[in-house]
Amino acid sequence: MIALTVHEFSHGWVAYKLGDMTAKYSGRLTLNPLAHIDPIGTLLLPFILFITTGGRFVFGYAKPVPINYWGLKNPKRDMGLIGLSGPAANLIFAFILSIVWKTLPVDSLLRLILEYLISINVILGIFNLIPIPPLDGSRILSALLPSNLASQYNRLEPYGFILLLLLITTGVTNIILWPLVRMFLAFLGVPF
To answer: Which residues contact 76 (CB under 8 A, 6 or more apart)?
Structure first.
């Protein structure tokens, strides 16, 4: 919940700074986790996956922060920045937590909790950089592509979740995700 809250709050905050008031007016410009809970994606899905996989695979999501594309000053660029803000916030938060983690005694329970929180933030941040809709990486890539290519690429959105599930179940995301997660955690000095 902490990682998801940081992630969604940052989307709303950056959108707000770029001219879109939607997150503020919908009560999502907050670090209160209750504002970001999606009953199915945040509670039910992770619980079912934890039970059915014996804790080997857990996946979930928060309620997406609403963004008004037309409320932005430079919509194409700003959507990319908003997309980048969530993963960046998770990775920056992991970095800050790693500094605190290094100051704690090795056998400390708080150190163990922070280790998990750091790992979760790194996994969430890197996973969301995958350029498949509805992940944030697709917003970043769309902002970087020329308008005609971005328009064609954005047509994948209705099929993105199916494509993402296919990549997860076939293990393709593991080939991409885990080496990057290990590399970032090694950079932070946190074991994985």
So the answer is: 142, 143, 147, 150
- Angle ∠(68,79,64) on CA atoms, nearest 5: 60
d(CA 127, CA 174): 10
Tell me which residue has tokens 């209705």: 158
Question: Is cis: bond before 105, omega within 30 of 0?
Answer: no
Length of the chain: 192
Q: Active-site residue 8, yes or no?
A: yes
State whether residue 105 is helix, strand or coil: coil
19: left (phi over 0), alpha (psi -120 to 50) or beta: left
pTM, entire model: 0.92
**Beta strand extents in the chain (DSSP E only):** none
Query: For residue 27, what is the DSSP state?
Result: T
pLDDT per position in the chain (192 positions), as tens? Answer: 899 999 999 999 999 999 999 999 999 999 999 999 999 999 998 899 889 988 877 888 899 999 999 999 999 999 999 999 999 999 999 999 999 999 999 999 999 999 999 999 999 999 999 999 889 999 999 999 999 999 999 999 999 989 988 988 898 988 989 999 999 999 999 998
Indicate which residue of 4, 6, 8, 42 is catalytic: 8
Rounded CA gap, 18 and 85, in Å? Answer: 12
